[in-house]
Amino acid sequence: MELSSHTPLSTSTSTLPAYKSAFLQTCLTSSVLKFGTFTLKSGRQSPYFFNAGLFHCASLLRALSTAYAQTIIAHDPPLQFDVLFGPAYKGIPLATAVVEKLADLDNERFGDVSYSFNRKEAKDHGEGGMIVGGELKGKRVMIIDDVVTAGTAKREAIEIIKKEGGELVGIIVALDRMEKMPAVEGEIDGDGKPGPSAIGQIRKEYGIPVLSVITLEDLIEGMKTMGREGDALRCASYRDKYRAND
Length: 246
Hints:
Blueprint: H1 18-29, E1 33-39, E2 45-50, H2 58-74, E3 83-86, H3 91-105, H4 107-110, E4 114-123, E5 129-133, E6 140-144, H5 152-163, E7 167-176, H6 198-206, E8 210-215, H7 216-225, H8 229-241
Parallel strand pairs: 3-4, 3-6, 6-7, 7-8
Antiparallel strand pairs: 1-2, 4-5
């Protein structure tokens, strides 16, 4: 018998930290996280879709910034950085909101952290330049964004930081899909053979931590706990088909 999205589970207790469970619940109730059949840019048919662009009202932005901040605070060993850099455009509101939330939760540690973001085009008047907010030169910089897809945008942000004289110390995103990069010509996509992910490649290439508020494994665990067995099974099947090995 095929399971529906809401087939009840036996009683289970979530092993996820409270902030992850709360974030998942917010994503569901706000339709930031949807289940169904979605065609990704890669051409893959995904059983779920995450749209961080829907965190546009105050209460949702507060929930999002809290989840990012708690993820940073929970990281062991502690992350030391001077600037939170949000690549234009989606990273801009994330950087500003999360810097404030970090200071709200631990002002002694994060009260002097700055936010910064880039302009798409250099300004040729006034103060000029490509950067708005805290300067990057000589600073430890952490990038914040919604997701890593192919990694191209993150590499562009990394080059901006290097050009400005900053030191990259980490990256944080909302979701790690934990899937291998799309197959190149001549390869079979979705063959079940694990491969490198975009996030894994960035970790390896730059030797930095790449954090995520939630991962696909968290999503599957959360759906099981909420009694959404059908969604959990479909996501697990997708994971097994496109599993990353890093």
